Fold this sequence. Notes:
By secondary structure, the protein is an alpha+beta fold. It has helices spanning 2-20, 69-77, 79-82, 91-95, 130-136, 138-154, and strands at residues 52-59, 62-66, 104-111, 114-118, 120-123, 126-129.
Amino acid sequence: MKNLKSIVLVAFVALISNIVSAQVEPVDKNKLAIGGYDVVSYFTPGKATKGEGKFEVEYNGANYYFASAKNQKTFKANPEKYLPQCNGYCAWGIAADKGNFPINPLTYKIVDGKLYLFFNGLYEGKQFNTLTEWNKDEKNYLKKLAVASEKTSKK
């Protein structure tokens, strides 16, 4: 019986760990953006907060959820201010030219008033947090993103 309790506990911890580090596409197959997280909440109050379907805004083909009517109204007034950089993909993946990685909505950073999201989960069987990599050379990565953005806007 004691072994069964241990097995159940280990399975539960593994399940919770997997849920906490779940990666999402910037916009999923149902057109839900950022896994339903409220993009305004990253700025005010400054933490990732799950939004609710009753406070939804469709913008550029994606559905954004908000934690409150106030955040919904704030977004509607200036959506571009709150949208994540790199089209919602992992900022490190884009800046380091590694590709379009999904993101963990709980792993983010605000730099110069802009929201950057990051991958934070298992990669090739090991925990990999791209925010840690980003922080090692943030200044250089920001320059690379600026150059890439400039090239894109000239097309």
